[in-house]
């Protein structure tokens, strides 16, 4: 059995992984707050941005940074295709979960969205694990695998609940900190399920450092783009106020105007109508 070290760079990789998970979760929560106040195509654009932030930065990037600290008695390379698929899966399942819960309140929808997103996050994690190539055979402890998927489902369900209920800077930051703990906890639980038996096969794929520069550039572009979208857009409160104003205007346009009452007849001093001829 090969010796495995999950923290070959000390506390650096888990701290950076946790930080990226918190940043992605924070951006995602802010974007989904905008989605709650939007309508039509705009709503789905905000949800897509939230899925990109949570699934892309908060989950997939966290996974990759944490993997940088993984070390075994072999050179490690990565299958580029499987790694890309894992990123698509991460963003896609989070968007699916957000879409499910955004269509109505209720525990059944929340549970369905959490199961979808959690199972997808687990799939993303293990696709990323199978993307590793080394001179050895990988095996997984089924109990730890099941526990990691359970953690992913619970974490995804809680995260989706946060996207529905949390508002305000302090509450949103606290929720993002909790989501970071859950996501990184799921990752390292899944990593501890892995064991490697030495072999003589030749590792194939790209070295980890080959991903580093594109990863940093991609994270920077995504983060800057999402921050600009948040800063240049109206706040959730302003969006709600605009929506209420538009609804009032639309109601006024569709409601027929009530004709004014006819004027009261004028009377003289003796009480007769001025336009009624005297007898």
UniProtKB/TrEMBL annotation:
<feature type="transmembrane region" description="Helical">
    <location>
        <begin position="143"/>
        <end position="163"/>
    </location>
</feature>
<dbReference type="Pfam" id="PF03707">
    <property type="entry name" value="MHYT"/>
</dbReference>
<keyword id="KW-0812">Transmembrane</keyword>
<dbReference type="InterPro" id="IPR005330">
    <property type="entry name" value="MHYT_dom"/>
</dbReference>
<feature type="domain" description="MHYT">
    <location>
        <begin position="9"/>
        <end position="197"/>
    </location>
</feature>
<feature type="transmembrane region" description="Helical">
    <location>
        <begin position="170"/>
        <end position="191"/>
    </location>
</feature>
<feature type="transmembrane region" description="Helical">
    <location>
        <begin position="80"/>
        <end position="98"/>
    </location>
</feature>
<protein>
    <recommendedName>
        <fullName>MHYT domain-containing protein</fullName>
    </recommendedName>
</protein>
<feature type="transmembrane region" description="Helical">
    <location>
        <begin position="12"/>
        <end position="32"/>
    </location>
</feature>
<feature type="transmembrane region" description="Helical">
    <location>
        <begin position="211"/>
        <end position="232"/>
    </location>
</feature>
<feature type="region of interest" description="Disordered">
    <location>
        <begin position="242"/>
        <end position="279"/>
    </location>
</feature>
<dbReference type="GO" id="GO:0016020">
    <property type="term" value="C:membrane"/>
</dbReference>
<keyword id="KW-1133">Transmembrane helix</keyword>
<keyword id="KW-0472">Membrane</keyword>
<feature type="transmembrane region" description="Helical">
    <location>
        <begin position="110"/>
        <end position="131"/>
    </location>
</feature>
<feature type="transmembrane region" description="Helical">
    <location>
        <begin position="44"/>
        <end position="68"/>
    </location>
</feature>
């Amino acid at each position: 059995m090969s010796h495995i070290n999950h923290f070959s760079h000390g506390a650096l990789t888990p701290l950076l992984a946790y930080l990226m998970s918190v940043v992605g979760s924070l951006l995602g929560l802010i974007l989904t707050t905008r989605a709650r106040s939007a309508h039509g195509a705009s709503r789905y654009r905000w949800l897509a941005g939230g899925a990109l932030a949570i699934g892309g930065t908060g989950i997939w990037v966290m996974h990759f940074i944490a993997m940088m600290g993984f070390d075994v008695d072999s050179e490690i390379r990565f299958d580029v295709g499987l790694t890309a698929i894992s990123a698509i899966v991460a963003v896609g399942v989070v968007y699916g979960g957000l879409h499910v819960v955004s269509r109505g309140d209720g525990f059944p929808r929340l549970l369905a969205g959490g199961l979808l997103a959690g199972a997808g996050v687990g799939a993303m994690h293990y696709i990323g694990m199978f993307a590793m190539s080394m001179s050895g055979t990988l095996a997984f402890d089924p109990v730890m695998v099941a526990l990691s998927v359970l953690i992913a489902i619970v974490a995804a369900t809680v995260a989706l609940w946060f996207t529905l209920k949390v508002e305000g800077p302090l509450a949103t930051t606290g929720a993002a900190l909790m989501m970071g703990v859950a996501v990184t906890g799921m990752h390292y639980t899944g990593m501890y399920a892995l064991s490697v038996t030495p072999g003589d096969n030749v590792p194939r794929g790209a070295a980890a450092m080959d991903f580093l520069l594109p990863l940093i550039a991609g994270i920077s572009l995504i983060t800057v783009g999402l921050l600009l979208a948040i800063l240049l857009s109206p706040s959730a409160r302003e969006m709600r106020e605009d929506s209420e104003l538009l609804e009032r205007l639309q109601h006024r346009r569709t409601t027929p105007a009530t004709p004014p009452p006819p004027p009261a007849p004028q009377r003289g001093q003796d009480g007769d109508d001025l336009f009624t001829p005297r007898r």
